[in-house]
């Protein structure tokens, strides 16, 4: 599940275009015929060539995200195809990338989105410029970008502090976490809150190994994590972790589709030296060293 990071492809430069306002008479051909300009220039560029008698590109701002530099330009030109005046923005990615062009997408709280090879650069009024790269970018794309369940990025990609991995946080109480062992997976809502309360990937659960998945027969959801941990949520029970031999017993019985239903507590220690997780329907699973895990309902051993 290795991560391919577009910025490591050296030797070329990338360009993205966002059309902020187009004359009603502009066509797809007119957009395709927009004039090229010097890459990563630092001053206003103008052309007087016959096909585009008036066009200019004016530097607006410089954006740096970690090692990568972007230059943002205001764009104006006259379409050679229709004579329409076209107004927009252009972003040059100025350090070793493949040349590309893409429109800015506006809506869902997102002001601008520029798509490069393996990287997406966005600007929102809430948090400014943010960058999503590599496998995290691929996962975000598969979820529908800002229109999907995670929303738009509120952080740049950040390395996890104590384990090899990375993450971006997103606007809908969501995150996408990546590690070499697990790939990239999203976590959101109350399951994310529970995982965060237990130390994120630094805790015993490690990284997520699935996206959030809806339970097949009952209203609820879950994420599985490294080291044999899961967090299950339902409207009636909230979000709770389950792990180890208690989780194994519950899984063998049919998970939430069994008589036990969803967990109603995290695992906790009992006064007699055991461990226990409570479930719906007045059920629980009790574990003791050397004896393993047994399921009880109404205090009667069942399974």
Automatic annotation (TrEMBL):
InterPro entries xrefs: LGFP
Pfam families tied to this protein: LGFP
Signal peptide, first to last residue: 1-28
Record's keyword terms, sorted: Signal
Protein name (Swiss-Prot/TrEMBL): LGFP repeat-containing protein
Species name: Cryptosporangium phraense
Record lineage: Bacteria, Bacillati, Actinomycetota, Actinomycetes, Cryptosporangiales
């Amino acid at each position: 599940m290795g991560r391919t990071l577009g910025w490591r492809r050296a030797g070329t430069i990338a360009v993205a275009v966002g059309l902020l306002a187009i004359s009603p008479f502009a066509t797809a051909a007119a957009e395709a015929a927009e004039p090229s300009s010097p890459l990563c220039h630092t001053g206003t560029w103008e052309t007087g060539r016959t096909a585009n008698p008036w066009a200019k590109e004016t530097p607006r701002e410089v954006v740096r995200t970690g090692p990568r530099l972007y230059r943002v330009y205001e764009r104006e030109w006259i379409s050679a195809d229709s004579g329409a005046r076209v107004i927009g923005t252009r972003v040059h990615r100025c350090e070793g990338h493949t040349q590309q062009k893409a429109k800015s997408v506006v809506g869902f709280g997102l002001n601008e989105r520029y798509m490069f090879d393996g990287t997406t650069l966005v600007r929102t009024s809430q948090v400014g410029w943010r960058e999503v790269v590599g496998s995290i970018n691929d996962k975000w794309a598969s979820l529908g970008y800002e229109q999907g369940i995670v929303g738009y990025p509120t952080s740049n990609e950040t390395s996890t502090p104590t384990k090899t991995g990375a993450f971006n946080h997103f606007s809908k109480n969501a995150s996408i976490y990546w590690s070499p062992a697990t790939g990239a997976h999203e976590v959101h809502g109350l399951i994310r809150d529970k995982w965060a309360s237990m130390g994120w990937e630094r805790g015993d659960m490690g990284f997520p190994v699935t996206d959030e998945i809806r339970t097949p027969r009952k209203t609820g959801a879950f994420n599985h994590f490294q080291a044999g941990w899961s967090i299950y949520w339902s409207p009636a029970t909230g979000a709770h972790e389950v792990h180890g031999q208690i989780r194994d017993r519950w899984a063998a019985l049919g998970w939430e589709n069994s008589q036990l239903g969803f967990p109603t507590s995290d695992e906790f220690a009992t006064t007699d030296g055991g461990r226990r997780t409570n479930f719906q329907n007045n059920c629980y699973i009790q574990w003791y060293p050397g004896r393993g895990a047994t399921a009880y309902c109404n205090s009667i051993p069942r399974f």
